[in-house]
């Protein structure tokens, strides 16, 4: 019997050695699997999957600590289906027990995670979890994130050996993450350099300013994997920026959008003259008026495109979807350099446009000078000759014809002089276009309304709309905004100005109390008469969701 006991004990030790061997082999395989990847997203996914497999945990997660060092900017899970994740709701931000490992970056092992003083409990639809093991992941001298493992299969607790295995894996994970970040950084730097070269080449080839703006926004979106990228420029005389180009989510609706300085990411970057970032732009209380990053957006950053007198010349805004990684320092540095290069590109485009304008004006001056010095003098001399010849002509009819010819020459001289004056004064009187006038009117209405209206402008408003019709449009816009301020009691007002082929259309909508059937309609009648006088229409609708929608239309001259 003693021999049997010894044999049983030997078998147990052999099984333990085999288990240790198998576990070491599994750990080595996990380390090799994690270190083999160079894509950071894949590395993070491999780490959490390997950790859950090594300790036989039902659930695993990896939380990446955000730039503030207090919350989680990214949270990857294992063991939960997409449907379960959607039911649970927003991903953890790093509070409660998860935050305990952030604030105290040491391994934490628990038999019942609900018994910890920092535990907040679980949100609705969250599966129950009991045992817990948390281990920090360090990259060089900083804590990159934490591994969270719960519910070891078989209903047993995580032991010291599990903690040792995960701690060993975390060391290898830190090296793999560092390698992936270095590789990703070098690849990103190459992409930024290529984008800068492409912008420079585009400028040297004579591309227009809108084409350069589009190239800047598209390359920035591609390199940063952003869901939205837009470029907004300040509108002279207003406290706002207008989106000149947008790409990504709702890009068409964002084109022409007016963004106020106060309470917006782009406005803050413009006024500060430096980059401004947010981890959760959709619900960031600092940017309460932001109409660019609404529901569904997470990390966002606004970068100024060059600065003048402490304010930017324009702003590049990039936003990712909720749950995507935040913009880290390793991304911001090349992004700021790219924005500086883009600002230089825009300045060169403006200088080229100014040079072309100066060349055009000089050419007009030359034409005017030639007309005055050559054509008018010759016409005047011809007229004097004819007048002298008329006195020598005895035939009454011939003399009358010569007199008419002299009068025609005098009239031609007057026309040429008028043309010369037009050549020398055209483009020298700077008057704001319809786009700037509309932006200023909407910006002025924000004070009376108590909130900035949403403005969207489409089409060639400054070139297709003649000044007389533009004046009518501004009068209609002023009346409609005044009505919304005095009568609508609305919390949201939208203005859309669109120049389509052959037509200009102004739409003002709100979510107010609507237009009463028996109310005074003198202002609306004036709007209708103004539209009809131009051959257009004015309609008043009540949307299903309430409020009002007023549409003022006028035809544009053929060929505009």
How does this structure look, described?
The chain has 14 helices and 18 strands. The chain has helices at 2-36, 40-54, 82-88, 96-103, 160-204, 209-224, 251-254, 265-272, 329-390, 396-425, 434-449, 461-464, 467-488, 522-533, and strands at residues 57-65, 72-78, 108-110, 132-139, 142-152, 228-234, 240-248, 258-260, 276-278, 297-304, 307-308, 311-312, 315-321, 454-458, 493-500, 503-510, 537-541, 548-555. It has a 6-stranded antiparallel beta sheet with strand order 8-7-6-13-10-9, sandwiched between helices. With 560 residues, it is of the alpha+beta class. It is elongated, with a radius of gyration of 36 Å. Strand 17 and strand 18 (548-555) form a beta hairpin.
Summarize the structure.
This protein has 560 residues and is of the alpha+beta class. It is built from 14 helices and 18 strands. The strands form 4 sheets. It has a 6-stranded antiparallel β-sheet, sandwiched between helices. A 5-stranded antiparallel β-sheet has the order 2-1-5-4-3, with helices on both faces. Strands 14-15-16-18-17 form a 5-stranded mixed β-sheet.
Which helices and strands appear, and what pairs or packs with what?
Elements: H1 2-36, H2 40-54, E1 57-65, E2 72-78, H3 82-88, H4 96-103, E3 108-110, E4 132-139, E5 142-152, H5 160-204, H6 209-224, E6 228-234, E7 240-248, H7 251-254, E8 258-260, H8 265-272, E9 276-278, E10 297-304, E11 307-308, E12 311-312, E13 315-321, H9 329-390, H10 396-425, H11 434-449, E14 454-458, H12 461-464, H13 467-488, E15 493-500, E16 503-510, H14 522-533, E17 537-541, E18 548-555
Parallel strand pairs: 14-15
Antiparallel strand pairs: 1-2, 1-5, 3-4, 4-5, 6-7, 6-13, 7-8, 9-10, 10-13, 11-12, 15-16, 16-18, 17-18
């Amino acid at each position: 019997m003693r021999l049997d006991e010894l044999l049983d004990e030997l078998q147990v030790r052999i099984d333990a050695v085999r288990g240790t061997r198998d576990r070491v082999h599994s750990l080595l395989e996990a380390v090799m699997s994690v270190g083999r990847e160079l894509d950071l997203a894949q590395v993070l996914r491999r780490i959490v999957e390997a950790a859950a497999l090594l300790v036989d945990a039902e659930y695993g997660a990896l939380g990446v600590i955000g730039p503030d060092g207090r919350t989680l900017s990214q949270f990857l899970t294992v063991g939960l289906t997409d449907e379960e994740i959607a039911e649970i709701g927003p991903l953890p931000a790093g509070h409660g027990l998860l935050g305990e490992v952030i604030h105290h970056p040491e391994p934490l092992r628990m038999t019942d995670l609900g018994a910890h003083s920092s535990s907040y409990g679980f949100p609705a639809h969250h599966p129950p979890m009991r045992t817990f093991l948390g281990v920090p992941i360090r990259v060089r001298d900083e804590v990159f994130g934490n591994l969270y493992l719960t519910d070891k299969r078989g209903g047993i607790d995580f032991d010291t050996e599990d903690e040792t295995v995960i701690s060993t894996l975390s060391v290898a994970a830190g090296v793999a993450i560092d390698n992936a970040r270095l590789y990703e950084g070098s690849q990103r730097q190459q992409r930024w350099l290529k984008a800068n070269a492409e912008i420079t080449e585009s400028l040297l080839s004579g591309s227009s300013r809108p084409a350069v703006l589009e190239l800047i926004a598209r390359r920035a979106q591609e390199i940063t994997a952003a869901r939205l990228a837009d470029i907004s420029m300040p509108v002279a005389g207003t406290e706002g920026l207008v989106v000149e180009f947008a790409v990504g989510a709702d890009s068409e609706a964002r084109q022409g959008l007016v963004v106020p300085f106060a309470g917006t990411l782009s406005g803050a970057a413009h006024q500060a003259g430096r980059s401004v970032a947010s981890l959760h732009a959709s619900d960031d209380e600092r940017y309460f008026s932001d109409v660019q990053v609404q529901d569904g957006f997470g990390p966002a950053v606004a970068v100024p495109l060059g600065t003048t007198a402490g304010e930017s010349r324009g702003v590049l805004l990039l936003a990712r979807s909720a749950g995507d990684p935040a913009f880290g320092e390793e991304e911001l540095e090349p992004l700021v350099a790219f924005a500086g290069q883009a600002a230089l590109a825009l300045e060169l485009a403006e200088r080229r446009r100014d040079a072309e304008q100066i060349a055009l004006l000089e050419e007009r001056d030359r034409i005017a000078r030639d007309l005055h010095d050559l054509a008018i003098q010759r016409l005047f001399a011809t007229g004097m000759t004819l007048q002298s010849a008329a006195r020598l002509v005895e035939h009454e009819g011939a003399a009358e014809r010569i007199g008419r010819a002299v009068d025609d020459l005098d009239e031609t001289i007057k026309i040429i002089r008028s043309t010369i004056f037009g050549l020398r004064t055209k483009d020298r009187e700077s008057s704001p276009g319809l786009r700037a006038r509309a932006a200023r009117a909407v910006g002025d209405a924000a004070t009376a309304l108590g909130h900035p209206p949403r403005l969207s402008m489409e089409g060639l408003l400054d070139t297709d709309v003649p000044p007389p019709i533009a004046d009518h449009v501004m009068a209609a816009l002023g009346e409609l905004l005044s009505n919304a301020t005095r009568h609508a009691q609305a919390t949201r007002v939208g203005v859309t100005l669109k120049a389509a082929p052959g037509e200009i259309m102004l739409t003002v909508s709100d979510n107010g109390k609507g237009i009463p059937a028996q109310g005074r309609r003198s202002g609306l009648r004036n709007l209708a008469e103004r539209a009809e006088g131009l051959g257009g229409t004015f309609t008043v609708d009540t949307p299903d969701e309430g409020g009002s929608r007023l549409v003022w239309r006028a035809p544009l001259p053929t060929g505009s």
